[in-house]
Specification:
Blueprint (H helix, E strand, L loop, with lengths): L1 H37 L13 E11 L2 E28 L2 E25 L7 E11 L3 E7 L3 E2 L3
Antiparallel strand pairs: 1-2, 2-3, 2-4, 4-5, 4-6
Length: 155
Amino acid sequence: MKGKILKKIVTFMMVLICAVSIPGQGAQAATIEDTMINQDYDTFGINPITTMYDCDITMAFRTEGLVMTFSTASLGTASVIGVKDIKVQQKMWYGWKTVLTSPGAENQDQSIFACTVTYSEAVKGKTYRVLCTHYANVDVYEEFENDTGAFKFTY
């Protein structure tokens, strides 16, 4: 008889321990999940889905010089969309020399942006590169740094 009572007491204690600990585990799991959702994306090496999908610099070497078209597109209407910090650089023996700068331009309440810049003093046979920052704000402000790499000016 004592064995049955002891067994029931032990069983009751085990059930009680399990029942009491379940809500605590549930709360802990929710806390961990909330923490993971609110942590910075960089912690996990991932980025949120971007709203920009077309960030291009098109270069054409023409008789009027180096003609560059900058385009930025977004998925959805952006409160602001554009390109900024445009730099045209010429390759020199010591590195890259900035030969033209432009603050860029932007559109409001659009999903596509494009503009053209011409560097009329480009020298045939010289190597150039173009740098800029594309940006848009659909639900969140985003930037993308673009670099054409080196191109030789020929026409």
